[in-house]
Each structure stands twice: as structure tokens, then as C-alpha cells.
Specification:
14 strands; Rossmann fold; about 400 residues; single chain; 2 domains; alpha/beta; six-stranded parallel beta sheet; eight-stranded parallel beta sheet; 15 helices
């Protein structure tokens, strides 16, 4: 990669509930600061994120040695001024590449239009997911916007072939879509810490735990796990269930759990720090992803790195990392009965679960490490500069 190139990485959210992506951004920016003449991480955060959270996020990144700035975004109708100011920033600092990471609507729209108006040579837009659960009118507005924006960026990066196919179905410009597989930092996973979280939860080491990590929203499908729990408990009454994360659906799920019998079988941990989340996953016997939409879930890779079998819906990028019958079990989406049967099967056949966990770790070690993820993106950026981009970097 040429030292003459200057890259601007834009993110539009705080990472408090996306630790794996934070880990990646830190590693990527450190590498880019070595490889390029300049690499700047720009937070474009709106007023929905409090000043304290914005300041804490910036300070955290700067403490890790990342060249970081904040661009406060007012979403009260002054879009044209915001676009003008951001465009001038890009042009003034003479960036060659603008990389817009996952950001909410309309933040990504403002950033892409500003980059386009600045005249920057290369615009790369990373899409990690689609807001398919929104009301129809908002969904149509957002999708029409995405279709337009896909025409003015140079490349769209996604982290699975499943996500690429979903974008094609949404009529996003298919020619510029590039699939780049993600990865996780194996150094932070230690299966020997299995009992530390169990002690905190008051769960004895021989009691099986089924767990899920993720934002608690409709499309993550935690409600289907809740529906599956009574069926599992009929067969394995000692089983426990742990849900890590927070989100708009959490209060409703907690109310449903409070009405369930028997009591005290489900634990909601809320949002946890990165290290603590890894310890909690280590306490699981089975990891579950009942999602309705996924790109390629880092939680699956984290679980596999800890030798946990994974039960996931056969959607999006899940089948690309979870091999049915080898590293886990794939089930239909929105099917709590199939989910319950898969959980029961693995809890009753511990030898099968162990073999799946061991196979999963080998897959992560061979194809899905954090270093591989960063290296793939560096190659992609280098190829973008040369105009020789490949359809995928796996």
C-alpha cells in the first residue's frame, strides 16, 4: 500500500454493545496508521447519543493510540449544512479514500453524499445489516436511498455471501459488492474460565447453560428462544438460559419469562464489557443464534473459538461458518420447536456437542481470526487503490 494514500474511516455509532467490531476497528486503524500516510477515525455521532457517551468513546479510542476525531451531527433539519461541512473536511485534508463503516440512517446517507461531493477518489461503504424490521414506509424510504447511494460509491463491503445475496434482492448495485470475511482475536478466549461466570450466576458446573449474545431486538430472534425454553425444560428440567445484551425487546421478554414456570431458569445480564462477555460465553454449553437476519455473526465465531457448538437459523451468513452436523446445527427461522429439538439433542449427546465444539475451533483458527480480517481489508483497500478489486476476500 502506498504511503502517499490518506484514508478516512467513518463510524456512526458507539461500540458499547458491539465489542467485536470495536476490536476490529482498533486493530484495523493501528495497521492503517502504519501502512498509509494518514489514517483518521472520524466519529459522526448525532444528538441521540449523549455528550458523555460521545466523549467517552473518543477518549477510549485515543487512549488506544488511534488518531480519532469527533464530528457532531445535528439531525434537526440542517442536513445541507452538515453535508457541506463534512465535505469540506474531507476535501481540506485531501483524503484519497473514505471508508464509511456501519452507521444508522440517515447518518450513512449524509456521509456518503458528503464524500461524493468532496470529489474523493474512492468511497467504500460497509453494510453490516439491513433494517428489514422497520414499518413498510420507512423500509421503502431507506431501501430507495440505499439503491441511490449504491450508484455513487465505488465499492460496498459486506462480511458474508449471504449478505451479498440479500443486497442483490434489495436491488442494491451488485457490481460493487465485495464480501470480506470477519474474524475474532483468539488471544482473548480461554475456555478454562468456564466456572467464573457460573459462580457469579449461582449455577453449578454440572448444570447445562444455553446462551445467546446480541442486541435484544425482533430480528435477533431471542423471543423464539424464550418460546423454546418450556419444551427444553420438559426434557432437561435442570437447564438454564442466559441472554447477554440489551435492547427495545428486553422488557417484554423479561415479562414473559416472569410468567413462566418453573421460575429462575432464565438470566438477563444486560450489556457486558468485552472480557466479561468472553467469560460468560465460556460458561455456555451451547450457543444459540435464533436470528431472522444475520450477516456473519461474530458471536458464532466467538463461541466456536471457545469450542462451543452453535445452533443457528439457516439464514444470511450463518451457513457459511456453521456447518450443519459438523460445527453445529442449522434450524429454520421462526421455528421454536425445531430450535428446542436441536438444543435437547446437543444437551443429551455431550460427546456430539464436544466434537462439534472442537471442529468449530479449527474452523475459526483456519479462516476467521482477527489478523486475517484486518489483512483481508488491507488487501481490499490496496486493490481498490489499484482498481483491481476481487469479488470476495475469504
Amino acid at each position: 500500500m502506498s504511503k502517499r494514500e490518506r484514508i478516512l474511516n467513518i463510524v456512526g455509532y458507539c461500540f458499547e454493545n458491539a465489542h467485536g467490531h470495536q476490536e476490529y476497528i482498533v486493530s484495523l486503524c493501528r495497521r492503517l496508521q502504519i501502512e498509509m500516510e494518514e489514517s483518521l477515525l472520524l466519529y459522526v455521532l448525532d444528538e441521540e447519543i449523549s455528550k458523555d457517551r460521545r466523549d467517552a468513546e473518543i477518549s477510549m479510542m485515543q487512549s488506544k493510540g488511534i488518531n480519532t476525531k469527533n464530528f457532531f451531527l445535528r439531525l434537526d433539519g440542517y442536513y445541507l449544512k452538515v453535508i457541506k461541512d463534512l465535505s469540506q473536511l474531507i476535501k481540506r485534508d485531501n483524503f484519497d479514500i473514505v471508508h464509511i463503516n456501519t452507521a444508522p440512517f440517515p447518518v450513512y446517507s449524509i456521509c456518503i453524499i458528503a464524500a461524493y461531493l468532496s470529489g474523493v477518489s474512492n468511497i467504500v461503504w460497509h453494510i453490516n445489516g439491513l433494517d428489514l424490521e422497520r414499518p413498510l414506509n420507512k423500509y421503502l424510504t431507506h431501501n430507495l436511498t440505499r439503491i441511490f447511494l449504491s450508484k455513487i460509491v465505488n465499492r460496498i463491503s459486506v462480511n458474508s455471501e449471504g449478505m451479498r445475496e440479500l443486497l442483490r434482492k434489495q436491488r442494491i448495485n451488485p457490481k460493487g459488492i465485495v464480501s470480506i470475511y470477519p474474524g475474532v482475536d483468539l488471544k482473548r478466549f480461554d475456555k478454562e474460565v468456564r466456572n467464573s461466570a457460573r459462580s457469579e450466576f449461582g449455577i453449578e458446573k454440572e448444570i447445562p447453560i444455553v446462551g445467546v449474545v446480541g442486541t435484544i431486538v425482533d430480528y435477533k430472534g431471542q423471543n423464539y428462544l424464550i418460546e423454546a425454553i418450556p419444551y427444553v425444560l420438559k426434557e432437561i428440567p435442570e437447564a438454564r438460559f442466559v441472554l447477554v445484551g440489551s435492547g427495545p425487546l428486553k422488557p417484554a421478554l423479561e415479562q414473559r419469562v416472569n410468567r413462566m414456570e418453573p421460575k429462575n431458569k432464565v438470566i438477563f445480564t444486560g450489556i457486558q464489557p468485552l472480557e466479561k462477555t468472553s467469560q460468560i460465553i465460556a460458561s455456555f454449553d451451547i450457543s444459540v443464534l435464533p436470528s431472522l437476519q444475520e450477516a456473519l455473526p461474530l458471536f458464532a465465531l466467538e463461541s466456536m473459538a471457545l469450542e462451543k457448538p452453535v445452533i443457528a437459523t439457516a439464514i444470511g451468513g450463518n451457513p457459511e461458518v456453521i456447518k450443519d452436523g459438523t460445527t453445529g446445527i442449522l434450524v429454520p427461522q421462526e421455528d421454536h420447536i425445531s430450535l428446542a429439538k436441536a438444543i435437547i439433542k446437543l444437551l443429551k449427546d455431550q460427546d456430539l456437542a464436544r466434537r462439534m465444539g472442537e471442529a468449530g475451533k479449527r474452523v475459526v483458527e483456519e479462516r476467521f481470526t482477527l489478523d486475517m480480517w484486518v489483512e483481508r481489508f488491507i488487501r481490499f483497500i490496496n486493490d481498490t487503490i489499484k482498481g483491481e478489486v476481487q469479488p470476495y476476500y475469504h
